[in-house]
Design a protein that fits this description.
37% strand, 27% helix, ten-stranded antiparallel beta sheet, 8 helices, alpha+beta, 13-stranded mixed beta sheet
């Protein structure tokens, strides 16, 4: 007997992060007030190993086969939704969740999808939630000085010709005196970083500025970020910093590697691609990045291409691993001395048509099972011109979104 799943328009257009239901908040993907937020858990699983993207697709299609879908809204992101959070390393566990209820918003249109035979569930608007608990941070796998030494080692390997670029990550541990509120974190990140994609999947939460891949019908989009400079807070000075970033040979070199890796990964699946000749400067609340949007149109392949295929080809990109991939991965395993888990892995949502939006899990924290501690991450692209002190400052800037959100709204 198939399970009913229904999608209908909502009469009002509430702010997603302020919605309340009788179900727990389990997943989200929001940007600038639009997106999807999931409550409850109808089904979930984990996958790992070299075939994890194939296994994830198989499991998703098996669940879809059990559903009787009634969708009066249609369009990307409507109907049943799979939230995914893949580990950086295939040997680690990746998480898949199908919420029991999903609220969606795009522009002036809002919709609700729920699983089961009941009538449309009731939702309400939350009042302000109070911050509770105090978060204390301590060093993760490596201290600041130890991490700088690893950066110096990576630069030496690059200068010796072992590889061209490697991305080195670091972590901090935050411990709270009370349960850390996922809803408060999402609200804070959405308010302070509206141009990022704010996500939650299986206790992995963050605000990523980098879109690994969006698939909408046959149009493919990927936003690549590589090359970073910290903002000063002075508007005139920041304009000068943006100009220096756009001319920086070190940052342009790092960016070129990342763009090239994405374009090459998409090429086999696209009849045409558009790769801009030069990047633009993306301004976020605390940093600026060199950014490039690569677009393409899927070719008419005999076997249909879905977003799982594209994720498999794109991950890991040079923006989170390095160039060449195998050499960079070996250096990461040698120098980082930590397990990235789902940090820097693909995270986002996929619908029943195989369309979706998948970001790279950056500006990220992973909550412990009891939700009283959190491990937050940042990473920097290391090339021949990198300076350990500058890279440490960049890593601290990239930790700032999660640190600030935790300190203000624990």
């Amino acid at each position: 007997m198939p399970t009913n799943i229904t999608t209908e328009l909502l009469g009002e257009h509430p702010a997603l992060e302020l919605i309340a239901t009788e179900l727990d908040l389990t997943a989200s993907w929001m940007r600038g007030g639009d997106g999807l937020i999931g409550f409850g858990e109808w089904k979930s699983t984990s996958v790992k190993g070299k075939n994890r993207f194939v296994d994830a697709r198989k499991w998703w299609h098996e669940q879809l086969a059990t559903l009787k879908i009634q969708n009066t809204v249609h369009g990307s992101g409507t109907g049943p939704i799979l939230f995914t959070s893949f580990a950086f390393d295939p040997a680690e566990e990746s998480k898949l969740i199908i919420p029991e209820l999903v609220i969606g918003k795009r522009g002036d249109k809002s919709w609700i999808t729920w699983i089961g035979d009941r009538n449309q569930p009731t939702i309400s608007i939350l009042g302000n939630t109070k911050s509770i608990g105090k978060v204390i941070f301590e060093a993760g796998a490596l201290s600041d000085s130890e991490w700088k030494n690893r950066v110096a080692s990576a630069v030496n390997k690059i200068k010796n010709g072992d590889l061209e670029k490697v991305v080195l990550a670091r972590d901090l541990i935050g411990k709270s005196t009370a349960v850390i509120s996922k809803r408060n974190l999402i609200t804070s990140l959405s308010k302070n970083y509206p141009s990022t994609w704010v996500f939650l999947v299986a206790n992995l939460i963050g605000a990523t500025p980098e879109l690994l891949v969006r698939l909408n019908k046959s149009l493919v989009t990927s936003r690549i970020l590589a090359g970073t400079i910290r903002k000063s807070g002075d508007e005139a000075k920041d304009l000068g910093l943006a100009a220096s970033l756009a001319k920086s040979s070190k940052d342009l070199e790092e960016h070129e590697y990342a763009v090239r890796s994405v374009a090459q990964a998409l090429e086999p699946f696209c009849s045409s691609t558009n790769v801009p000749e030069s990047p633009f400067v993306l301004h976020l609340a605390n940093v600026m990045h060199l950014a490039t949007d690569v677009t393409g149109v899927l070719n008419d392949a005999t076997t249909p291409i879905d977003i799982f295929t594209l994720i498999s080809s794109l991950h890991p990109s040079a923006a989170v691993c390095g160039t060449p991939t195998q050499a960079a991965s070996a250096v990461i395993n040698e120098l980082e001395e930590m397990n990235r888990g789902r940090y820097a892995g693909p995270v986002g949502w996929i619908d029943a048509r195989g369309d979706g939006e998948i970001g790279i899990a950056l500006r990220t924290g992973e909550l412990s099972e009891d939700e009283k501690s959190i491990r937050i991450f940042s990473g920097c692209g290391i090339v021949a011109g990198s300076n350990p002190e500058d890279e440490l400052a960049e890593s601290q800037a990239k930790l700032s979104p999660m640190r600030t959100a935790l300190e203000i709204r624990a």
